[in-house]
Amino acid sequence: MGALRLDVVTIFPDYLKVLDLSLIGRAAGDGLITPVVHDLREWADDRRRTVDGPPVGGGAGMVMRPDVWGRALDRVLAAPIGGAATSGGTAPRTGGAARRVLVMPAPSGDLFTQRTAEDLAGADQIVFACGRYEGIDARVAEHYRDAGVEVRELSIGDYVLGGGEAAALVMIEAIARLRPGVLGNPESVIEESHGEDGLLEYPVYTRPVAWRGLDLAVREPALLSGDHARVARVRRDAAIARTAGRRPDMIRRLSPDRLDADDRAALARHGWAIPAGARGPVELLVRSARPDDVDALADLAARTFPDACPPALTPEQVASHTALNFTPERLSAWQADPRAILTVAELPDGLPAVWLVETAGGAGAVAPRELVGYSAVLLEIADRRGALLSGLDSRPDAVEVPTRADGATGLAAELSKVYVDARLRSSGVAAALLDHAVRAAAAAGVTALWLGTHDGNRRAQRAYRRRGFRAVGSRDYDVGGRRCRDVVMSLNPQEARGAR
Ligand code: SAM
Description:
Layout: E1 4-10, H1 22-29, E2 33-39, E3 52-53, E4 63-64, H2 66-76, E5 100-111, H3 114-120, E6 125-129, H4 139-146, E7 150-155, H5 164-176, E8 210-211, E9 214-215, H6 216-219, H7 228-246, H8 248-252, H9 261-269, E10 272-273, E11 282-283, E12 285-288, H10 294-304, H11 315-325, H12 328-336, E13 340-346, E14 371-379, E15 412-420, H13 429-443, E16 448-454, H14 458-466, E17 470-479, E18 482-491
Parallel strand pairs: 1-2, 1-6, 5-6, 5-7, 15-16
Antiparallel strand pairs: 3-4, 8-9, 10-11, 12-13, 13-14, 14-15, 16-18, 17-18
Helix pairs in contact: 7-9, 9-13, 10-12
Bound molecules: S-adenosylmethionine.
S-adenosylmethionine is lined by residues 105-108, 130-132, 134-135, 155-157, 159-164, 167.
């Protein structure tokens, strides 16, 4: 690959003096790029070196003349370019010929992105035509395009600058650093913001480890662990968190097949689900249940309960348990009682049927605002009469309730339910609800959040482990007259990652 020739045509050549500095200056010194700055007025044909005229049709400001630009660009586009076979300024590019690109910075152009920079980094010559005033006569771009030149009208953002010089400098810097040899360590471009993975970069730190009360040993211990896999995971989670917070548009464009289970769990923590068949993550609304949710919730609860039952149960056994436990009255009582943290998940925009796979629960579109999952955390607090919440299971002996860090008595709670509509299985909705439940339990002062899950349901156990739960024992129980066994898992929400 020869040097990249960068021609800048401007009425303010001095503006481009910064090309001598820093990365670009050094790359030029090393022969990796060849910046050449031209004064447009050299191609004016009057004594006053005029380059502009009033707009045809009237209006404010001045427009840059096509004849002056034409003479300048004919010349610059015909310049010989290092090593590669050169084609005439207006000749179309053919196989093996050098790639020349005419870039016309313009706020009305296509957005210049990292993808554009990567593409243009493969050119042999880029000519930047820097407009001023109201811009360059539109026939200039049209003429060179018609003549077979690759013309790119590019905007660096949705704002208006006084001229194209600053835009050209921005593009030159973004393009040049992608040329081989320009950056000392080529690895630096791999994990950057706007790279191939479609995320913003994670926050970066250097020494000192503790600075003005901000101590990485406390906040980011994994980064100091020396465990490369752990560091990579923590950084990827941080990149997902940052992108979700700042650029939801980028999250929406992530490709599901490039997201592993940990990525999906991280996305779920930030309220994004990936339904089977979806083109990308969809935003999830996780909120406290309201009184008007109760009927839909009872319906969802009855529909989803069989999914988590041991396979040996008969439909009658399941139905009798449902009729007893998932009544609107029970859910209504929980909704009204501060000792129950009842949370629901809905997809604000619904989901088209084409995104959904056939499942035992049946395919079909999810309507906007339809409840797609719920969770219930039941606090082990007695009311004035000494009664616990109805529906709260008795705490297995294996669950210990640690005291709080301030020495206060601990509090136990059962994570009684986390259920998701079958159409959204494996989408991250369960992980989002689980995360929400852990945070809510932490906020309520819970020090032992425990749950029982059918011992054959390994998938659920894996999901709970991923969120920090540990198996502490087992319990036997009865569904519709049949004995079943659960694994009992527990976690201290006060110590859980990202609990607050
Ligand atoms: N009248 C033009 C319009 O509304 O689209 C704006 C002209 S602007 C004042 C003058 C020159 O600044 C443009 O010709 C272009 O070269 C440059 N420029 C201004 N904003 C830009 C942006 N966001 N991206 C790229 N170039 C820009």
